[in-house]
Design brief:
The chain is built from one helix and six strands, in the order αββββββ. The chain has 290 residues and is an alpha+beta fold.
Amino acid sequence: MHILTKVFVVLAAVMSLMLAAATMIYAYNAESVRSAYEKADLARVLSERTLATQSESHARDIATLMGEIESRQQATADVQADLNSLKVEVERLRREKLNAEAEADRIRGQITQFGVAAQTQATLIENYKDEVSELRDDELRFRDERLQLEDAIADQSSQIEVLQQENRALQEQLASATADLEAARGNGTVTRTGGSASTGPIQLQGPPIFGSVRDVRIEQATGKKLVQIDLGANDRMRENVKLLVFRGGTFVANIVLKNVDLQDSMGEVVLAANGLEIQAGDRVTTRLTQ
């Protein structure tokens, strides 16, 4: 055989071997590739399913997030609206604060003016108070003096009235005594009582003594009016002492003591003012004094 043919045969054999080896490798690689492809396809299907599930989940999450975003945006809008309202309110309050501060300054100024006015008025009131107090003291002093003068005038008037009543009574007694004396002289006799000449009532000397009438009664045997008083021998009373009976500033009667005990006495009415009757509680005295 020709050398070339041998070479070709050898080359063909080698190439056959190489082809067989390549076929074997290809068959092995094809099976591996097919198996890998099937695995890859299965993985792809699983990945697509997983991706679809994740896509659905993501879509739900996105929808939820979009809802939350919308709610957050609405809340943000509400907050913004509230913020705008608060800004308006803050501006209004700021203006009111400025107005209030201005009003406070005005009021403080007025308070200062009122304080000065009040201080001035307080000073005036204190001066008026002092003047009124002085006037009141003067008025009270004048009133006291007037009352004292009126009391003194009333006492003097009472004493004058009592003295006038007593003077009239004495004048009546004097006239009666004069008439009796003239009659006695004409008859040539003198009236005696109890076998002896009668003596007039006694008027106690010294400071006046005051008491009151306890009881008034009529003596059944003689019809005389008897007066019981709360003055007795302990008060320097004795028989035949003349006492004056008065009520307020009015003369009522004269009495002459007939019976005297230690603490009370019994007297007989010798002269009574017209239209007046002695009553329990009337005042009695030994004499009037200034």
